[in-house]
Specification:
alpha/beta; six-stranded mixed beta sheet; four-stranded antiparallel beta sheet; about 20% strand
Length: about 220
């Protein structure tokens, strides 16, 4: 079966997808149902190669430019949190700068990262809020991972996600964001609308790359 006729399931909603485009590295597939564009499993990096890419990152909490970048998620989230709300930073990476920023504002926050903070006990309780900054585009199984996070969120709690969104399939072919070999799941506005409907969640789009989803109380 050729790349053009291959119809891998969408990793978010499991709908059959269709060929979208190809660059020099890999093909991409689009889901009409939830709007996600993804890279199919045969073109994913190995765990060793993926970790090697992440080891090149140098994100420090005392870097003013990086803190300014993260403030796009931190500030709208902080405006919605009650004092002392406890959270989880999912995919904290090599330098958990976002967690540092939230702790500075009085919010205790635990860390999880597949490679750098693999403490799965964080999924054994519920949190007032969960953050995921520049993480979901790396997930091979976003459906399972996001569902796990949603179950770990208290009623009324917030899930804050930062990721650049697909806006146009024609423009996707020229999009620099897809060129990172660890980026394999590309969300669109439609993707987050689908999640909000599935979870009966309140969705707030607060920037070009930030969304907040609030879990219903009842």
């Amino acid at each position: 079966m050729s790349e053009e006729t291959l119809q891998p399931p969408c990793p978010l909603c499991q709908q059959v997808t269709r060929f979208c485009c190809r660059d020099r590295r890999r093909p991409y597939y689009h889901c009409d149902r939830c709007g996600m564009v993804h890279v199919a499993a045969p073109w994913h990096l190995s765990a060793v190669d993926e970790r090697a890419q992440y080891d090149l990152h140098d994100n420090q909490a005392d870097d003013p430019a990086y803190r300014q970048f993260l403030s796009r998620l931190a500030e709208p989230l902080l405006a919605r949190l009650p004092a002392g709300a406890e959270g989880l930073d999912f995919g904290c990476g090599t330098g958990p700068a976002l967690a540092v920023m939230l702790r500075e504002k009085g919010h205790p926050i635990a860390l999880y990262d597949l490679y750098y903070a693999p403490d799965i006990s964080v999924f054994e309780r519920q949190w007032d809020f969960i953050t995921s900054s520049e993480v979901v585009e790396h997930l091979a199984h976003p459906d399972a991972e996001l569902q796990r996070l949603w179950q770990c969120l208290k009623p009324g709690g917030w899930l804050g996600i930062m990721t650049k969104r697909v806006t146009d399939l024609a423009a996707f072919t020229r999009w620099h964001y897809k060129n990172d070999p660890t980026h394999i799941s590309f969300f669109s506005q439609q993707s987050f609308d689908w999640l909000a409907e599935r979870w009966h969640a309140r969705l707030e789009v607060v920037g070009d790359d930030v969304v907040l989803l609030q879990k219903p109380i009842n």
